[in-house]
């Protein structure tokens, strides 16, 4: 069943991404001031949306673990956080490449970029923490606390362009009352976000299954030592 | 059209897809490792159980 769901999600993502690539490169016109480079927004923003979805699911799973003490919640949080980290990396890298053309610099220590970098580093520390702690319950408890803390940083990342004057552009999407983009130019962002969330969900299902196998290996090892 | 603009657009999309591909490859490698580890631990348990029965 899970295998079938993974194939379906990958299929949906592939169809949507192919259609969107056609729309973005063949239909959408260049932006008046930036030219062609503005198209990076079609991978940058959907990746950030996918990342945000991941953080939210990780938050729920982490709270679920702290409440129920069930390691299956921890497995979900671990799988989702790792995939969210991949998309956070894409956000940072594509943003930096866009900045090189739009601003003339690769990086600026403004609140949006800095808080996102901190968020990325928190995700790295989450993944390192999981490797460093062997005892499953202790690992799950510490990871859950860190995941909740990372989500609070994500709120700062999200709101930073409203709270402070930043080098990073302010809200441009109409869902954030930005209104800086024509509706025709905005639609592929949401479709791409849907495609990336579908693809990320498939990756999470794969990682979740691996976390289950890890738990099985741990249990068998303990049983073997007890014999 | 500014060629540099297009080049960096290409770099952006290339980087994004490279990151995704690397991650998928790493998942596949881990899957293979975990399956091997699971088989090894299962064999170990079977051997220990046989030893227990002999004793």
Structure overview:
- The complex is a heterodimer of chains A (227) and B (55).
- Chain A is built from 6 helices and no strands.
- In chain A, helix 2 runs parallel beside helix 6 (183-226).
- Chain A has helices at residues 2-27, 41-68, 71-102, 111-132, 136-163, 183-226.
- Chain A is 79% helix and 0% strand.
- By secondary structure, chain A is an all-alpha fold.
- Chain A has a single domain, classed as Four Helix Bundle (Hemerythrin (Met), subunit A).
- The radius of gyration of chain A is 20 Å and the shape is globular.
- With 55 residues, chain B is mostly helical.
- Chain B has a domain at 22-55.
- Helix content of chain B is 95%, strand content 0%.
- Chain B has one helix at residues 3-54.
- The radius of gyration of chain B is 24 Å and the shape is rod-shaped.
- The interface between A and B is medium-sized, with 33 and 31 residues.
Greatest interface and its participating residue counts:
A-B, 33 and 31 residues
Question: What is the string of SSEs of chain B from the N terminus onward?
Answer: H
The whole-number mean of residue pLDDT values of chain A reads 91
Instruction: Report how far apart the termini of chain B are.
Output: 81 Å
Taking Cα atoms only, what radius of gyration of chain A do you get, to the nearest Å? 20 Å
Report the biggest beta sheet of chain B as strand number plus sense, adding barrel if it closes.
Answer: none
Rg of chain B: 24 Å
Question: Ranges of chain B with pLDDT <50 over ≥5 residues?
Answer: none
Q: Low-confidence segments of chain A, ≥5 residues, pLDDT <50?
A: none
CATH class of chain A: Mainly Alpha
User: Main β-sheet of chain A: number of strands, strand sense, barrel status?
Assistant: none
**Could you state the order of secondary-structure elements of chain A as H and E?**
HHHHHH
The assigned structural class of chain B equals: mainly alpha
The end-to-end span of chain A amounts to: 35 Å
Number of strands of chain A: 0
Helix content of chain A: over 70%
Beta-strand portion of chain B reads under 5%
- Helix tally of chain A equals 6
Helix/strand class of chain A: mainly alpha
Overall pLDDT level of chain B: 90
Shape of chain B: rod-shaped
């Amino acid at each position: 069943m899970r295998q079938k769901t993974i194939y379906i999600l990958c299929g949906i993502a592939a169809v949507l991404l192919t259609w969107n690539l056609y729309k973005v490169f063949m239909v959408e016109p260049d932006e008046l001031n930036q030219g062609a480079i503005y198209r990076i927004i079609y991978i940058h923003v959907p990746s950030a949306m996918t990342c945000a979805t991941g953080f939210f699911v990780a938050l729920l799973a982490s709270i679920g673990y702290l409440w129920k003490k069930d390691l299956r919640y921890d497995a979900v949080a671990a799988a989702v956080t790792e995939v969210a980290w991949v998309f956070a990396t894409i956000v940072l890298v594509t943003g930096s490449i866009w900045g090189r053309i739009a601003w003339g610099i690769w990086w600026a220590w403004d609140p949006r970029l800095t808080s996102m970098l901190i968020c990325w580093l928190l995700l790295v520390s989450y993944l390192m923490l999981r490797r460093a702690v062997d005892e499953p319950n202790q690992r799950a408890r510490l990871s859950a606390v860190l995941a909740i803390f990372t989500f609070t940083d994500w709120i700062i990342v999200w709101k930073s362009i409203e709270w402070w004057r930043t080098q990073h552009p302010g809200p441009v999407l109409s869902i954030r009352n930005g209104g800086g983009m024509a509706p025709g130019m905005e639609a592929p962002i949401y479709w791409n976000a849907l495609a990336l969330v579908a693809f990320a969900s498939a990756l999470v299902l794969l990682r979740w299954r691996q976390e289950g196998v890890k738990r099985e290996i741990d249990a068998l090892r303990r049983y073997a030592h007890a014999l | 059209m500014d060629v540099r603009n297009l080049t960096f657009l290409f770099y952006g999309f290339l980087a994004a897809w490279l990151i995704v591909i690397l991650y998928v490859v790493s998942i596949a490698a881990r899957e293979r490792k975990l399956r091997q580890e699971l088989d090894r631990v299962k064999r170990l348990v079977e051997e220990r159980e046989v030893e227990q029965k002999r004793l």
